[in-house]
TrEMBL record, chain A:
Full protein name: Molybdopterin-dependent oxidoreductase
Keywords: Molybdenum, Oxidoreductase
Species assigned in the record: Actinomycetospora straminea
Region (Disordered): 798-830
Source superkingdom: Bacteria
Upper classification of the organism: Bacteria, Bacillati, Actinomycetota, Actinomycetes, Pseudonocardiales
TrEMBL record, chain B:
Record's protein name: (2Fe-2S)-binding protein
Domain 2Fe-2S ferredoxin-type residue range list: 14-59
Pfam families the record matches: Fer2 (PF00111), Fer2_2 (PF01799)
Domain [2Fe-2S]-binding: 74-147
Key words of the record: 2Fe-2S, Iron, Iron-sulfur, Metal-binding, Oxidoreductase
Record-linked Gene3D superfamilies: 3.10.20.30, [2Fe-2S]-binding domain
Region annotation Disordered: where it falls in the sequence: 154-174
Length: 830, 174
C-alpha cells in the first residue's frame, strides 16, 4: 500500500516542476470571477471623477428604471459611510487616522472613490446603469503636493483631523544607544577638512502593483456561515477584519481565496468593494459579485511607493561613512490602508543597508493627499530605502573620486563580522557580501565593460554605455511577533501549519500562508516529503480557505517559506513525535531504541521497522495502540520567528543610452543573490526574474501620474506602461549560499529581492552613461523624454573636453567629481 | 439579439447574443469557458487571447457575432486525449508561469507565433508576445518555453510533439 520501502531521494534542493501548473496551463482555473452561483447578482460602483468634492446630492431614479437593475444604493442606504475600514498599523500613539468609509457619504477625497452602487442581473447592466446615476458635486481644492500639504494654511484633505500630517516616526541611533548622534556627526564633518558631506534629494515615484488578475469578490449569504470568495493575499486577516469592522460574529464568516492571479502587496487589503459586496449580499439575501475593470483597478486599488527622500551622508575623504541622516515624506493618499502608514517605516531598518554606519537618524512624516491611498507594494519600504542608499553610495563615491564598488567594499560588514548588530538595531545573522560581489563581477565582466565604456566615450559614440551597481540586503520573514508589537503593529508575525495523516498514508498539509503564484504547493510538498520521508506526490497542500485553514497570517513580506515553511517543519516534527510511541508499540521496542529516517522508524541495530504511512493506517484502525495516548498522529504547529532573515546580493546593470533620443536599452544584467538554502532552484530563479522585471520597470517605465486637478493620468494599461517581453532582456542570475541561522531550514526568502535591488542598479547605470555630459540626476522613470531633456539641459554645463579624462580607469563612475559641487541636488535634475 | 453558430473547442454552439457582447464574455459567461480570462479593458494585456479560425485574436476585441460561422480554439481545447500540447508542456517544463493568469493567453499567442515562424530567435519571440503582459515571470522563462516548444515541434522532432504541431498548424479546429 505504501512506498516507504523505497525511501525517496532528497527533495529539498531539487528543481521540481510545479504541481500547480497542470490546472493553470489547461484552463481549469478557479479565479474568483469564474464563480457562478444560482441567482447571482452583480454590482458596479459609481465613482467620483473629482479628487476632492462635497457631495450635494445623488439621483438614482434613472438608474433604477434600467431593466435588470435590482437596486441602487447610496452610502446611507447601506450604512457604508459609517463603516471604518481598518488600518492595522498605528505607527505612533498620536497617529491621525481619518475614517475610511466603504462608500463616501458627504465628501470624496480622491478621484475614483465610490459614492453609490448599482445591483443588477448582469455586470453589463450594472455598468450601464451606473452611468445613469446623477451625482451633484461641489468641487474642493485638491491636495497633491506633499510639501505644500504640510505648509501652514494648506487645504486639508480631512478638516476634521486638523492637519495633513498622518504621523511622524523617528529613529535616532544616538537616542536608541545603537550608535552616535547624527547631528553631532554632521557637525563634526562640517568643520573637518578630512570629511565631506553629500546631500541629495531623491523622488520615489508612485507605482501601481498591477497584478494581472483584476480584483473580484463574491459573497454568498445564504448558508449558516456567510461565504466570501475574494482575490486576496490575506484571507485570514480579511476574515478577522470583516468581523471586527462590521461587527459580524467571526465564526459566522468563511473567507476563501481561490486561485489568485498575482498580488505583489496589492491584494493585502480590506477593500471597500469587499465590504460593499458583503453589505449588498446581506441586504438582498442573495449572492453578489463584484469584479473590477482594469481601469478601476489602476484608479482605486492601492498604489505603492511615493516618497520624497532627503538624504545626508558624512564621509571621510578616504571613504569611511561617519553618519547618515534620512528625512522622508511619504504620501499616504487620501486614507490609511491596512498597513499603509507602516510601509515607509519598514525602511527605517534598511537605509543603513549592508554598511557599518556609526550614526544614523531616520525621520519620516506620512502625509495625506487627495490621491489613491498607498500601501504595500513588492518590497514595501525596503525598495525605497535601498534605492535611496544605493543611489547615495554612488553619489558619495563620485564626490570622493572613488570606484563605486571600492567605496561599498570599504564600508560593508565583512563576512567575518557576522552576526552583526546594525545601527538600526537589527542583528544580521549571516551574510557574505564579498562572495556574492566577486561572483557577480566575474559573471558581468566588470572590467571588460568598463573598458568598452571607455572606448565608447573616446569615440564619442551616440550610444553611451553605463554601468550601475546595487549591493543590497533586506529583512525577510515578517516577522517576530515581539518586534511587531514594539512597532505597534496590530497582529503577530507567526505562522501555522497542520498535517493530517490519512488512512492510506497520504498527507494533507494545511497552511496559513496563502499563495498567489509563488509555488507553495510544490515547495512545501518538497519540505514535507523530506521531513516525513513520504513521496512528493503523496502530499497535498491545502490553503486559502478559512474553513480548512483556520489559523494563519497569509502571504506577504517574503514570509511564506521563512515563517510558513518552518511551521510546516515543526508540524512534521510533531507528527513524528506522536508516531513514535505507536511505532514502539508496533515494533515491540522501547522508544529510546527507535530511529526515524527516510519515512521509517527502525529499531537501532536491527532491520525491524515500520513506515510512518503504515502507522497512519494503524491509528485509523486503532485496534491496537498503547494505553494513555490518542490514536492520532496528526499535528498542528505555530512558528513565531526569533529574528528576521537577511537575504542579500550584488546586482550589476549595464545600459546603452542613445544620447540623441534619450532611449535606454538594457545591455546586460547580472545578479548574484544569497537567499540562504534553496528549496527549489527553479522557483527561486523565477522569483528573481519577476522581481527584477518589476524593479527595472520602476527605474525605466512606470509611474502613476496625476494632473493638477488630481486626476490619474495613467489610468489604463495604455498609459501605465508595464514592460513587455520586448522591453526586457535575459538576466544572468546566480546564487551564493550562506544559510540563515534563524530558522532550521536555513532559508531566507526571495520574493522581493529582485525588486528591491534592481531599481538603483538601473538608475545608477543610466546616470553613469551620461554623467560625463553634465547630467547629475534624472527622476524615475528615466523615460526617453526625461533622459533626452536632461542631456539637452546639461549641454554646456560640462565640457566635452573632460571625456578622455573622465573615462580613464579609476576615475570613479566615469564622471568628474569636480562637476558636482558639495550638496548640489539640482542641475540636470528633472 | 443576433443568432450565432460557432464551433468552440470542437463543439458546435448556437446562441442568441446581444450584438455588443464580446467574444470573451460569450466564452466565459455563456459557454462557461472560464479558462480564457480578462485582464484589461483596453486590449493591452492579451490575457484573453484565443484562436479564431486558426489565428490568434484578443477575444476582448472581437464581438461574439463576428465569430459566427467560425471555429474558436481556447486554452481548454488544446489538450488531446489527456496529452498536453507541446506548448503547454514547454510552459510547465520551463517554469514559464507563476500565478498563471496570463498563461492561457500566452500559450495561445505563442502557438500562433510558431505557426508563423517555426524557428524564432529570442528577439523574435520577445516581439511576437509583446501584446501579452505578464507581471510575474519577467518573461525570461516564457521565452525559454517558446524556444523549447519550437525545438520539439520542428518536423522530425519526437512523434508526439509533431502530432501536437500538426494540430496547431491546422488551426486547432477540432
Ligand atoms: S482582456 Fe486584455 S487584451 Fe483582452
Ligand atoms: S504568471 Fe502571473 S501574470 Fe504571468
Amino acid at each position: 500500500m505504501t512506498t516507504t520501502e523505497n525511501a525517496p531521494t532528497q527533495e529539498i534542493g531539487r528543481d521540481r516542476r510545479r504541481k500547480e501548473d497542470r490546472r493553470l496551463i489547461t484552463g481549469r482555473t478557479r479565479w474568483t470571477d469564474n464563480q457562478a452561483l444560482t441567482g447571482l447578482l452583480h454590482i458596479s460602483v459609481v465613482r467620483s471623477p473629482f479628487a476632492h468634492a462635497e457631495i450635494k446630492g445623488i439621483d438614482t431614479s434613472a438608474a433604477k428604471q434600467v431593466p435588470g437593475v435590482v437596486a441602487v444604493y447610496t452610502a446611507a442606504d447601506l450604512g457604508a459611510d459609517q463603516v471604518q475600514l481598518p488600518c492595522a498599523w498605528p505607527v505612533t500613539k498620536d497617529m491621525k487616522a481619518p475614517q475610511r468609509p466603504a462608500l463616501a457619504g458627504s465628501r470624496v477625497n480622491f478621484a475614483g472613490e465610490g459614492v453609490a452602487v448599482v445591483v443588477a442581473r448582469s455586470a453589463a447592466i450594472a455598468k450601464d446603469a451606473a452611468e445613469q446615476v446623477e451625482v451633484d458635486y461641489d468641487e474642493l481644492e485638491p491636495v497633491l503636493d506633499m510639501e505644500a500639504a504640510l505648509a501652514d494654511g494648506a487645504t486639508l484633505v480631512h478638516p476634521e483631523i486638523g492637519t495633513n500630517a498622518n504621523a511622524q516616526w523617528v529613529f535616532d541611533s544616538g537616542e536608541a544607544g545603537s550608535g552616535g548622534s547624527v547631528a553631532e556627526a554632521l557637525q563634526k564633518a562640517e568643520s573637518d577638512d578630512d570629511q565631506i558631506i553629500v546631500k541629495r534629494r531623491f523622488r520615489q515615484q508612485r507605482l501601481v502593483p498591477v497584478f494581472m488578475e483584476p480584483r473580484s469578490t463574491v459573497v454568498d449569504p445564504s448558508g449558516e456561515q456567510l461565504v466570501m470568495w475574494s482575490s486576496t493575499q490575506v484571507p485570514h486577516i480579511l476574515k478577522t477584519m470583516l468581523a471586527l469592522t462590521l461587527g459580524l460574529p467571526e465564526h459566522k464568516v468563511r473567507v476563501i481565496a481561490p486561485d489568485v492571479g498575482g498580488g505583489f502587496g496589492g491584494k493585502i487589503a480590506v477593500a471597500p468593494e469587499e465590504v460593499l459586496t458583503l453589505l449588498v449580499a446581506q441586504k438582498l439575501g442573495k449572492p453578489v459579485k463584484w469584479t473590477e475593470t482594469r481601469s478601476e483597478s489602476l484608479l482605486t486599488a492601492h498604489h505603492g511607493r511615493d516618497q520624497i527622500q532627503d538624504l545626508t551622508m558624512s564621509v571621510t575623504k578616504d571613504g569611511t561613512i561617519t553618519g547618515l541622516d534620512v528625512k522622508l515624506l511619504a504620501d499616504m493618499g487620501a486614507y490609511l490602508g491596512l498597513v499603509g502608514p507602516g510601509v515607509p517605516i519598514l525602511g527605517a531598518f534598511m537605509f543603513n543597508a549592508i554598511y557599518k554606519i556609526p550614526a544614523y537618524r531616520f525621520d519620516c512624516t506620512n502625509v495625506f493627499t487627495t490621491k489613491t491611498l498607498t500601501d504595500a507594494y513588492r518590497g514595501a519600504g525596503r525598495p525605497e530605502a535601498t534605492f535611496g542608499i544605493e543611489r547615495l553610495m554612488d553619489e558619495a563615491a563620485l564626490e570622493l573620486g572613488m570606484e563605486p564598488m571600492e567605496f561599498r567594499r570599504k564600508n560593508w560588514i565583512k563576512h567575518e563580522e557576522f552576526p552583526y548588530t546594525t545601527v538600526s538595531t537589527l542583528t544580521y545573522d549571516t551574510g557574505n557580501y564579498e562572495a556574492a560581489t566577486d561572483q557577480a563581477l566575474q559573471m558581468f565582466d566588470y572590467d571588460g565593460l568598463r573598458r568598452e565604456q571607455q572606448e565608447r566615450r573616446e569615440r564619442g559614440d551616440v550610444k553611451q554605455l553605463g554601468i550601475g551597481i546595487s549591493t543590497f540586503t533586506e529583512m525577510c520573514g515578517l516577522a517576530p511577533s515581539r518586534v511587531l508589537g514594539s512597532l505597534d503593529y496590530g497582529a503577530g508575525g507567526w505562522e501555522t501549519a497542520a498535517i493530517r495523516m490519512l488512512p492510506t498514508g497520504k498527507a494533507e498539509v494545511v497552511v496559513g500562508v496563502s499563495p498567489h503564484g509563488q509555488g507553495h504547493e510544490t515547495a512545501f510538498s518538497q519540505i514535507v516529503a523530506d521531513q516525513l520521508g513520504v513521496p512528493f506526490d503523496d502530499v497535498e497542500i491545502l490553503h486559502g480557505d478559512t474553513q480548512s485553514s483556520y489559523r494563519g497570517l497569509d502571504t506577504y513580506g517574503s514570509r511564506s517559506l521563512a515563517v510558513g515553511g518552518i511551521a510546516v517543519v515543526k508540524a512534521a516534527e510533531k507528527v513524528i513525535e506522536k508516531a513514535k510511541p505507536i511505532a514502539a508499540h508496533m515494533l515491540e521496542a522501547s522508544e529510546g531504541d527507535l530511529e526515524f529516517s527516510g519515512g521509517r522508524f527502525t529499531v537501532k541495530g536491527t532491520d525491524k521497522g515500520v513506515g510512518i504511512q503504515d502507522i497512519a493506517l494503524a491509528v485509523f484502525a486503532a485496534h491496537d495502540y498503547p494505553e494513555g495516548i490518542e490514536p492520532d498522529i496528526d499535528a498542528h504547529a505555530t512558528f513565531d520567528p526569533e529574528n528576521f532573515s537577511f537575504p542579500h546580493g550584488t546586482h550589476l546593470c549595464a545600459v546603452e543610452v542613445d544620447t540623441e533620443t534619450g532611449f535606454v536599452q538594457l545591455y546586460k544584467y547580472v545578479c548574484v543573490d544569497d537567499v540562504g538554502n534553496v528549496i527549489n532552484p527553479l522557483i527561486v530563479e523565477g522569483q528573481v526574474h519577476g522581481g527584477l522585471a518589476q524593479g527595472i520597470a520602476q527605474a525605466l517605465f512606470e509611474e502613476a501620474a496625476y494632473d493638477d486637478q488630481g486626476t490619474l493620468l495613467s489610468g489604463t494599461l495604455v498609459d501605465y506602461t508595464l514592460p513587455t517581453a520586448a522591453d526586457l532582456i535575459s538576466f544572468d542570475t546566480a546564487n551564493t549560499t550562506t544559510a540563515s541561522t534563524t530558522n532550521p531550514l536555513g532559508v531566507k526568502g526571495v520574493g522581493e529581492a529582485g525588486t528591491i535591488a534592481s531599481t538603483p542598479a538601473v538608475v545608477n547605470s543610466v546616470l553613469d552613461a551620461i554623467r560625463h555630459l553634465g547630467v547629475k540626476d534624472i527622476d524615475m522613470p528615466t523615460t526617453p523624454y526625461r533622459v533626452w531633456t536632461a542631456i539637452n539641459d546639461a549641454k554646456g554645463t560640462a565640457g566635452r573636453g573632460d571625456e578622455a579624462n573622465v573615462a580613464s580607469p579609476g576615475a570613479g563612475l566615469g564622471s568628474t567629481a569636480s562637476d558636482i559641487s558639495k550638496g548640489d541636488t539640482q542641475g540636470g535634475h528633472l | 439579439m443576433a443568432r450565432i453558430r460557432t464551433t468552440v473547442d470542437g463543439l458546435v454552439y448556437e446562441d442568441d447574443v446581444e450584438p455588443r457582447m464580446l467574444l470573451v464574455q460569450y466564452l466565459r459567461e455563456r459557454l462557461g469557458k472560464t479558462g480564457t480570462v480578462i485582464g484589461c479593458d483596453t486590449s493591452n494585456c492579451g490575457a484573453c487571447t484565443v484562436h479564431l479560425d486558426g489565428l490568434s485574436v484578443k477575444s476582448c476585441s472581437v464581438l461574439a457575432v463576428q465569430a459566427n460561422g467560425s471555429e474558436v480554439l481556447t486554452i481548454e481545447g488544446l489538450e488531446r486525449d489527456g496529452q498536453l500540447h507541446p506548448m503547454q508542456q514547454a510552459f510547465h517544463d520551463n517554469h514559464a508561469l507563476q500565478c498563471g493568469y496570463c498563461t492561457p493567453g500566452m500559450i495561445m499567442q505563442s502557438i500562433d507565433l510558431l505557426g508563423e515562424n517555426p524557428d524564432p530567435s529570442e528577439q523574435e519571440i520577445r516581439e511576437g508576445i509583446e501584446g501579452n503582459l505578464c507581471r510575474c515571470t519577467g518573461y525570461q522563462n516564457i521565452v525559454r518555453a517558446v524556444q523549447d516548444a519550437a525545438s520539439k515541434m520542428k518536423p522530425g522532432a519526437s512523434p508526439t510533439a509533431e502530432a501536437g504541431a500538426k494540430q496547431t498548424v491546422a488551426g486547432g479546429g477540432a
